[in-house]
Predict the structure.
Amino acid sequence: MGQPRALGTDYRRSRFPASDLRRAPEPTTVADRRAPSTLRLRSPCRRRTARLALGRRIAWPCHRIRRRRRTRPRVSIAIVDTLDPVPISALQHWSYCPRQCALIHIEQVFADNAFTARGNAVHAHVDKPGAERVGTVRIERAMPLWCDRLGLVGKADLVEFEADGTAYPVEYKHGPRRQQHHDDLQLAAQALCLEEMTGKPIPAGAIFHFSTRRRREVAIDAALRDAVTLATDAVRSLLSSSHLPPPVNDARCRNCSLIALCQPKAVAAQARYRELLDQLFETP
C-alpha cells in the first residue's frame, strides 16, 4: 500500500487509495503518541483541508476523496410588523389638549404647578409596586400594562383581581368627584390592556377621587372602547409626524402646567396679526 507523500511532490502521480487518508494509522512509538494529534491536509488545487491523526503534512489527489456535506437546519425568521408603542398617559393628554400631548411626548418638556404637585402626592401611595390580599381579592399596585393589538403600554395605579381572575382597574385622581372624558378614556385603555393580558372581559372600572375619598365607577362600553381605538391612532399619527398642533386658548389653559411653555395667548395674537395683515393688503 502506497504512503502519502509530503507537500512539494507532484500530487498528480500519487497512487494511494483514499481509505488511507480517511483512517489514521495507530501510533507505534512513544514519539508518535506525543506527536500532534491532528494533521491538516491541504489540497493545492482547491485550497481545501482535511484532518488526520498524523504529525506531518501530506498531499493527495482531490478527486479520490469523497467530501461529506454538512447539512444545516433551515431557520425561518418571521418578520412581524409591530406598531409603535403609545403610552396610555398620552391618550389622556391628547384627549385633554393635543398641543399638551405634543409638548410632553414630542418636545419632552414638562413643568409642575399646584395641580400636578397634588397629583404627584396622590400617586405616591400607589406608585410603589406591591401586592396584598384583602379577603378573596388580590390587589396589585403600579402594575405594568400592554396591549399588542393596539400597541399600548403603560402602568395601572391599582388593579383588583377577583377569585376567578377578573380584573378591576382603579385610577387615582386628585380632583373632586366629577366625570371627565379624558380620565375615562385612560381607564378604558387600561381595561383593554388587562383584557388582552388576562383573557377575561372587563365590563367596568373605577376612578378614585382623592379629594372626596370616593370612587366613581365607569362602564367600559362599546362607545368608550371605540374612543380608545380612535385616540390611539390619532396619538400615533401625531407622534410620528413630530408636528406641534396650535394652542386651543380656552378655559383648559388656566389649569395647565405648560401654559408658560405653550404661550397660547401669544400664538393666538400672532395668528390674529397675520389675519389682519392679510385683510389689510387684500386686493379686491
About this structure: The radius of gyration is 37 Å. The chain is about 35% helix and 20% strand. The first helix runs from residue 19 to 22.
